[in-house]
Design brief:
Helix content of chain A: 10-25%
Oligomer: heterodimer
Radius of gyration of chain B: 18 Å
Strand content of chain A: 35-45%
Helix content of chain B: 25-40%
Structural class of chain A: alpha/beta
Number of domains of chain B: 1
Structural class of chain B: alpha/beta
CATH superfamily of chain B: P-loop containing nucleotide triphosphate hydrolases
Strand content of chain B: 25-35%
Distance between the termini of chain A: 42 Å
Strand order of the largest sheet of chain B: 6-9-10-3-11-12
CATH class of chain B: Alpha Beta
Number of domains of chain A: 1
Order of helices and strands of chain B: EEEHEEHEEHHEHEHEHEEHH
Number of helices of chain A: 10
Largest sheet of chain B: 6 strands, mixed
């Protein structure tokens, strides 16, 4: 009954919210020097965004999501800020290259210096569009949006201004990880970060992708009204025998509405490991789409979430096995405190000729509060007959005997919980070989427990 | 000098009374062995004093250096100087021994005080060497996949690192072969001398342990309280005669 009372006039404006045709025109003006094929794609993307409806309660891809709090209103394309306005922390790896973006613009760039890294392109997307247009064209946002966020994915493409471009040529193994930092600064700021990673045959690279708000918008109490909007993406391409490690650390302000879309393509014998740490935002939707497109490809899809206050983390995944002898391993672990909410919805698809697929999907939730809510929707769609696919979801409370054991050694209750959460996360954290990256992940999680 | 006074303690699990009027004072440096048949309340006593939430104290008091611990949380009791060596130590996947012990040591430091990491590891390794624990153990998850002997040695290691005023050792001998028992006993004995030697309450079912950790006092517990006390010869007597005579004596006394 309530649905019949929607007013058509408000519905029309809410389709674009703050991201009006005028805002888009202003954005286009800022990037008009970029290749015309890209501008055409952006125009098409904006048209799709403006025409598509907001998600509805009946949409399967939005089951359990809080739709009432999804909004496109109250944001703006923010003005430039200087590097000195950021409390920027480096990667902590001596000599590692980095790119720092704030409010959609480059503010700092440390190119790669190691001799063995020659041939690697580590630059902005804008420079890459101008200098390596064909490479960008064949990899940037070329995978379909299949997990429900077509509208927001179109918004991302339409307003994407700049981001990181990482290209590793055939046979080159990057000596050090590279760091990409995306900042959102100021109230109402809307940012559209992107990181594109192309590892050609037998190449190897590790990328750390950071999502942060400036100090002024960061330290807000849980339940803060929306103050920032982030709509980002990353494309990971691993050629034959390539190895890509991608670690994303989402630590937006507690008043951020965040969308992040990942598309991974793993070719023959390629190995991709992606780990997403979700700590920030008020409501964060993450969609991850992995394609195992040739025999021997392997994708490791990992995520860690620390949800507190009234935060909502909404994670949707798709693993498609398109060729025989491919494997994927998804492990999403959530620790839930207070009245936080998580949603995990994952699907493994095995195409008819993808025999000998080995696919695993697991969502584990550690409940630290009676008021927290974890929703799991694991799924399989298998069209081949000789495969091994397992999936499962569990929710468990902290083991009281373990808690008592720690406390009986003098460890305070809060610290005991933190230790048990780290213990729970170790299965994922232990897969990160770079000590510095491991330490940064640990530090973000620890920070969260101090809040 | 520290001491633990257990005064007329009554403990229930749910509505069921288990410990019914237990009284004992343990002074620093003393080893008191508590023996008795199964189901008589020995483990209940140890866990309840440590603050396990499954047990309810329905009467009496427990004083550490004159101060009641009963209103304290388990972690406060531990920091006040109580230590429980578990009969069945919990396995904690993903938490390394080094991080766990570090957190326990740090919990005892004042706010803002920094742990001297090199000093900590030096001390830890010395204690591990004494207990013949491989140094690789520091990176292993707490008790996960440990043998019975390894778990018990790990308990003694924690006791050595945390230097409690009073240690309650719950069936530390259970599940140990004779070699493991000897190592564990050496670890305990090494802590018995010196100015910071803890008072020890040694709960055991068998006299065997007392050959290696020689007690100052032996108490027989039956039906929730101490029914007989003596020196180490009492343990030998129990070994020879079994517990039946204690039960008979108790039945006669309460008839």
């Amino acid at each position: 009954m309530a649905s019949s009372i929607s007013a058509p006039t408000t519905a029309a404006t809410s389709l674009t919210g703050s991201f009006t045709a005028e805002a888009f025109a202003a954005h286009l003006e800022r990037v008009k020097h970029l290749p015309s094929w890209w501008l055409d794609r952006k125009r098409a993307a904006y048209a799709r965004f403006a025409a598509l409806p907001m998600p509805r309660r009946t949409d399967e891809g939005w089951r359990f999501s809080n739709l009432a709090t999804l909004t496109l209103d109250g944001f703006h394309l923010p003005a430039a800020v200087g590097r000195d306005q950021l409390q920027h922390r480096e990667l902590g790896v001596t000599g590692a290259g980095h790119l720092v973006f704030a409010n959609n613009r480059l503010v700092a760039h440390q190119p790669l210096t190691t001799a063995g890294d020659r041939g690697i392109i580590f630059d902005t997307l804008q420079n890459a569009l101008l200098q390596h247009g064909d490479l960008v064209k064949s990899h940037l946002l070329t995978q379909p949006s299949k997990l429900g966020s077509d509208k927001f994915a179109a918004l991302h493409e339409a307003f994407l201004e700049d981001g990181a471009f990482i290209y590793v040529p055939k046979g080159v193994e990057a000596a050090l990880p590279v760091g990409v930092f995306h900042y959102a600064c100021g109230n109402g700021a809307a940012v559209f970060p992107h990181t594109l990673v192309i590892a050609e045959d037998n190449a190897k690279i590790t990328v750390a992708d950071f999502f942060r708000s400036d100090a002024g918008s960061r330290n807000f109490a849980p339940g803060l009204p929306l103050n920032q909007f982030a709509c980002g993406g990353n494309d990971l391409y691993a050629g034959h025998g390539a190895a890509v490690t991608y670690i994303a650390m989402q630590d937006w302000s507690r008043g951020t509405l965040s969308f992040q879309f990942n598309a991974t393509v793993a070719r023959r014998d390629a190995k991709v490991l992606s780990l997403n740490l979700h700590a920030g935002a008020r409501q964060a939707r993450h969609e991850s789409f992995s394609q195992l497109s040739a025999p021997g490809a392997h994708s490791e899809m990992l995520a860690l979430t620390v949800a507190h206050g009234t935060q909502e983390f909404d994670q949707r995944t798709l693993q498609i096995h398109q060729a025989p002898n491919t494997s994927s391993n998804l492990l999403y672990k959530n620790a839930l405190l207070d009245a936080a909410k998580t949603i995990f919805s994952g699907l493994i698809v095995v195409d008819p000729d993808a025999q000998k697929t080995d696919a695993y999907q697991s969502n584990r939730n550690l409940m630290l509060s009676d008021e927290a809510e974890a929703n799991s929707l694991p799924g399989l769609e298998i069209q081949a007959n000789d495969v091994r696919c397992t999936h499962g979801a569990t929710s468990a409370r902290i083991d009281r005997e373990q808690e008592f054991y720690l406390e009986s050694r003098g460890i305070r209750a809060a610290q005991a919980q933190e230790l048990l959460v780290f213990g729970f996360f170790e299965e994922v954290l232990g897969k990160i070989e770079h000590q510095e990256l491991h330490d940064i992940l640990t530090e973000i999680i620890r920070e969260k427990f101090k809040q | 000098m520290s001491q633990l006074e257990i005064k007329d303690l009554h403990i229930s699990i749910g509505d069921k009374p288990i410990v019914k009027g237990f009284t004992l004072t343990i002074k620093q440096g003393e080893v008191h062995a508590i023996m008795g048949p199964n189901g008589t309340g020995k483990s209940t006593l140890a866990k309840a004093i440590a603050g396990h939430p499954d047990y309810t104290i329905t009467g009496g008091d427990v004083l550490l250096d004159g101060k009641s611990v009963l209103a304290m949380e388990p972690d406060e009791r531990a920091r006040a100087g109580l230590f429980l060596a578990f009969q069945y130590p919990s396995e904690i996947p993903g938490v390394s021994i080094a991080n766990f012990l570090r957190a326990a040591v740090q919990a005892r430091m004042a706010e803002g005080e920094e742990l001297d990491a090199s000093g900590y590891y030096k001390r830890l390794y010395a204690k591990m060497d004494l207990l013949k624990i491989d140094r690789k153990f520091t990176s292993r998850s707490v008790n996960e996949g440990f043998s019975g002997g390894e778990k018990k040695r790990c308990e003694i290691l924690q006791m050595a690192m945390l230097e409690p005023k009073v240690a309650l050792m719950d069936e530390t001998d259970s599940g140990l072969d004779i070699d493991a028992l000897r190592i564990v006993a050496e670890g305990v004995n090494a802590q018995r001398s010196g100015p910071s030697a803890p008072g020890i309450l040694l709960i055991t079912h068998y006299q065997r342990l007392l050959d290696y950790i020689v007690p100052d006092f032996v108490h027989v517990m039956y039906a929730g309280r101490i029914v007989k006390s003596g020196d180490k010869s009492l343990a030998l007597e129990l070994e020879a005669k079994g517990y039946d005579w204690v039960k008979k004596e108790f039945a006669a006394a309460t008839a």
